[in-house]
Amino acid sequence: MTDVRPHGGAGAGSTDRTGVTGATGSIGSIGGIDGIDGISDIGGPGTVGTEALRESIAIELLAARARTAALTDCVDEGDLTAQHSPLMSPLVWDLAHIGNQEELWLLRNVGGRDPMHPEIDPLYDAFQHPRAERPSLPLLPPAEARAYAHDVRGRVLDLLAASPLEGAPLLEAGFAFGMIAQHEQQHDETMLITHQLRKGEPALAAPPPPPAPTDAATLPAEVLIPAGPFTMGTDTEPWALDNERPAHAVDLPAFLLDTTPVTNAAYQRFIADGGYDDPHWWTPEGWEHRRRADLTAPLFWHHQDGQWLRRRFGTVEPVEPNEPVLHVSWYEADAYARWAGRRLPTEAEWEKAARHDPATGRSRRYPWGDGPPGPEHANLGQRHLRPAGAGSYPKGQSPYGVRQLIGDVWEWTASDLRAYPGFLAWPYREYSEVFFGPEYKVLRGGCFAVAPVACRGTFRNWDYPVRRQIFAGFRTARDLESS
Fold it and tell me: Which of 175, 204, 299, 404 has its CA 20 to 30 A from that of 263?
């Protein structure tokens, strides 16, 4: 099997982490696009009838394809076939890879169909070909890649119409279809990262997010999360991936967590105070990387005429002070937290703050409840091409009063990627099990580029601690005893 692992932010690593090796057996002015979010409520409370489920799956698949088209139709053939960074694939590789994964998993594995073009399978196997070498492969040209993906999609919709969506594990609650919808949206986020790295005239545009509410300036800097157990992970989310399972109890001591992600203005104070020049704030590995990579500010920032500027999707603009900081590595986030006398939260702390309802003792799907994300809850789905101001989306806050836990920026946590107790790899080992260990750090919460279908309170993303091109920021925590 080839590559069906999230996250599109996974998209950020040096390898695609959606990796599998076959699919038999084991398994201009574009940006915010109407309908791009999809409207699925899969996995919410209660049961979903088969026809409603079928319609919801179709909506998610079509929303993902609309976004793929928007991200690839806005540039010419040269931009599609170029490699804009050795960290990323050519856009045309992602385009055909999306279709190839859909064929492998749905037409062949679920539908039992013969391969359409088996000769191209190795070209789009992420484990066989690291990103840096993909431009040298005999990839399908843009027109052929589009035609292939379109042909696959037509056959998949026919398969969906006839599928019982139950019985075999891959069909239960439409899991395989949901996995593919998530996979395409995650590669769309990867392609959006490529657009950010791409030089030249802007190809994307979207309206800015709404301004932060008037109470944002008076929010407490941090929120107390009391000691006690909560349920982490899930046994009930039908489209949850293996590393989100199983649900298990975690007992945490009390801690304090930032109400909002760390802002650009706060991060500028770290820079101005010499944070990049003092090894005291950095781990030994982080300091060595900072020196070797000559890090002095977040990626895409530069200082000119007394102010910080940034390049955002081809446009140079002043850094917005109240936005969550973006494009920082785990090492930078960790150094900032140490400088501030704080630390990065663990992923268990993050999830408790995001999901635990102290009034009922249960864990929600999202900070605001069990219903799907709406535009009032979170900045998701490429509706805007930037984070919203700190303190935005009060209707999306958690029961503890923490804001922007979902959307805006991926949040680095202190945790290495590890299996939950009782973990079982499914539908294939390479989805996440091969990545468990200290090499990868966990990110939580999604970002403005993540589609709701690929974002929930249990979703786990991961990447190398050096990665900066991903849409990642952070918030900090501290032990209650240090207050």
Answer: 204
Answer whether 262's CB lies under 8 Å from 325's CB: yes
Closest CA to 181 of 62, 61, 96, 66: 61
Q: Which helix (H) or strand (E) holds 67?
A: helix 50-73
How crowded is residue 417: how many other Cβ atoms within 10 Å of its Cβ? 21
pLDDT score, position 260:
98
Q: Is the pLDDT of residue 182 over 50?
A: yes
Q: What are phi and psi of 348, to 5 degrees?
A: -65, -40
* pLDDT score, position 317: 98
Q: Which residues of 4-34 are buried (b: 16+ CB within 10 A; e: fewer)?
A: bbbbbbbbbbeebbbbbbebeeebeebbbbe
DSSP conformational letter for 105: I
Domain assignments of the chain as residue spans, ordered by start: 10-197, 214-263+337-482
Q: Are 286 and 344 a contacting pair, CB within 8 Å?
A: no
Amino acid making up residue 51: E
List the one residue out of 379, 380, 391, 354 whose CA is nearest residue 369.
Answer: 354
- The backbone region for 473, taken as left when phi is positive above 0, alpha when psi lies in -120 to 50, beta otherwise, is beta
Q: Which two tokens stand for residue 39?
A: 């409207």
Buried b or exposed e, range 289-317, using 16+ CB within 10 angstroms = bbeeeebebbbbbeeeeeebebebbeeee
As a whole number of angstroms, the distance between CA 261 and CA 480 comes to: 19
- Whether the per-residue pLDDT at 8 is higher than 80: the answer is no
* Residues found in the chain: 483
**pLDDT confidence tier of residue 430, bands split at 50, 70 and 90:** confident
Question: Contact, 382 vs 448, CB < 8 A?
Answer: yes
Predicted confidence (pLDDT) per residue in 275-333, tens digit: 999 999 999 999 999 999 999 999 999 999 999 999 999 999 999 999 999 999 999 99
pLDDT at residue 41 in the model: 59
**The predicted structure's pLDDT at residue 482:** 55
- Dump the DSSP string for 336-374: HHHHTT-BPPPHHHHHHHHHB-TTT-PBPSBTTBSSPP-
Give bridge partners of residue 23 from the DSSP assignment: none
Contacts with 36 (C-beta within 8 Å, 6 or more apart), sequence order? 63, 66, 67, 70, 381, 382, 383, 451
Question: Does the 214-263+337-482 domain belong in CATH 3.90.1580.10?
Answer: yes
pLDDT exceeds cutoff 80 at 16: no
pLDDT at residue 24 greater than cutoff 60 = no
- Right CATH for 10-197 from 3.40.1280.10, 3.40.50.620, 1.20.120.450, 3.30.390.50: 1.20.120.450
Amino acid at 147: A
Q: How many other β-carbons are positioned within 10 Å of the β-carbon of residue 55?
A: 15
